[in-house]
Amino acid sequence: MLELEVIPERGLTNGRLELILGMPLGDCIEVLKSSYSTVKDVQLTYNEEQPLDKEIVLDLTNDGVKLIFDQKFQRLKIIEIYDTKRITLKYCNNVFSAPGTVPTLELIRQCFGPTRAGDRNVRQQLFLLLFRGILFVFPLWSAGSSSPIFDADGLEFSEPSVEGSLVLSKLSIFSGSNPLEAVSPPIPIEYCQGHCFAKCIEGVRNEGSNAVTSLRVKILETSEAPDSSIKQLERTISFRDSPQDVMSSLGAPDKIFYKDEDKMRIHSQSQNKLPTSKTSDYFFNYFTLGLDILFDGTSHQVKKFILHTNYPGHYDFNVYHRCHFSISFPISSYSHNASNDSLSQTISVTTFTKWSEVVDYVFQDKPEKPVVLSRSSSTNNTNPFGYTFCYNHHNIIFEVMKNSHIASVIIYSPQ
């Protein structure tokens, strides 16, 4: 059974397991995986058709804990404990909920202080005790009394003993003072130390060119000093950059991966479909940026960028953190959305833009038939998500999921 310290407006911790508001989804999954001896069952739920309409939830079913993540930024927004019988909870080292300790309103007020009167939800028959960053919910029927619980004015309990009979049913930890307006806080500074995160990655074109030639990366950086703060830096990486150029801008990659084959070679315009070089191209993998950079194995220059959106339901989900990208395209004069005022305007395609919107605004005609990308299952790897579709536009390939969301953007050298 989990035993955790409750920290209002921050999270749950016991020294080994830390669940902190604002932590990225991928980091949280890794923390739970490393705690496999105590966290036995985790279920992930999301909206498959409209993944931006509903939060992503990690449900620790054996422990009665839900971790609710913002669906856009994929950071922990709310921690909800919905079954207090399956977990031991402490505040300032005082146990207020455990198998042998009933979490009554009286006990919780002793632990957290009697500075809040509480509110009634008449429609749902609940009593709510709200402190900044934490909400306690008590069903009124848990008092087990047939007589009225509140006085005639409905402001106070009819008897002092009521506080000892109301039993906690749910606890929520969040950032701010109103759980209904809770948002995921910024990434905690301890998660930025030793990692490279980006606020946004922008595609850059040379003047008069339709091809993206470089990426402008807005990096969130911090030092390992105790009093350090998060700073935003801007770096540009371009085609033909060397590995040294890239590392001086972004730091060392999380991993270097050497390609052993090119499965898209069959679609090349070259008549020679066989490899012509004995050297292997290689990737710099920046998992926390959601970015892969491919280098030519012979020239050792950048030849391709891959931006990952990390949507649930995709083959690469949870391999990368979400890349928040933005690439501007001129609105096509043939688009039914075009007007005399919009012919010189652009549309920004972002992580959240659906492919149907890209087609409506950017393409003069319907895009050509896509290449179907089918990652077939193998002995040690399965793909339950099916195939995706790859569409080309100038020097960009969009990988699109069945729900019309963009899974990845591949930008290759225009030369």
From TrEMBL:
Q: Which InterPro entries match?
A: PHAF1 (IPR005373), PHAF1/BROMI (IPR039156)
Q: Name one GO cellular component term.
A: trans-Golgi network
Q: Name one GO biological process term.
A: Golgi to plasma membrane protein transport
**Pfam hit, one:** PHAF1
Can you tell which superkingdom this protein's organism belongs to?
Answer: Eukaryota
Family stated for the protein in its record: Belongs to the PHAF1 family.
What is this protein identified as? Uncharacterized protein
Origin species, per record, is Amphimedon queenslandica (Sponge)
